[in-house]
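Q: How do we represent a protein-ligand complex in a form that can be generated token by token?
A: Start from the inputs.
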Amino acid sequence: MNETSVLDDMMRDRLVAAARAAARNAHAPYSRFGVGAAVLLADGGVVTGANFENASYGLSLCAETVALATASGAGRLRDVVAVAVIGGAMDAGGVPRGAAVVGPCGRCRQVINEAAQMGGRDVTIWCAAAEGDAVERYTVSELLPHAFGPADLGIGV
Ligand code: THU
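Then emit the structure tokens for the protein with tetrahydrodeoxyuridine bound:
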């Protein structure tokens, strides 16, 4: 294993751990499914988010969208390099459990694509589980091929 792949693995593990920590702050009393997301920025900074449900169910926000909106609000949308997501059914203490790998929903893929377009990077997406070592690596162009983006509006970035 070379130095670059060791660093990549460390960054992946750090990001998954941050997503797991964030998921503990999920506001998900309706689905009882906690999701956490962690966004890696080009300078090594990490921004996190958790799903944010609402009694008016359709208003609920996904963890990835919360994390990316937070990055955007900090002026860092162009700096997004990777996103990690984890999720699982909550136990009685509100902690997501389970070893099933979770991937971003369709809407979140589109939101990740916005960051990818603004930064000119094919953002890496790490899909992991609430517990265990399973993790899958994708890029946003793999998970959302032929995406609608700024170019479709005639806007160059
Ligand atoms: N959820 C996310 O936070 N991210 C996804 O990519 C998929 C779904 C949330 C929405 C809702 O609060 C709960 O998971 C169950 O759908």
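Residues 28, 31, 33, 35, 51, 53, 60, 62-64, 104-105, 108 surround tetrahydrodeoxyuridine (CB under 6 Å). The chain is about 30% helix and 20% strand.
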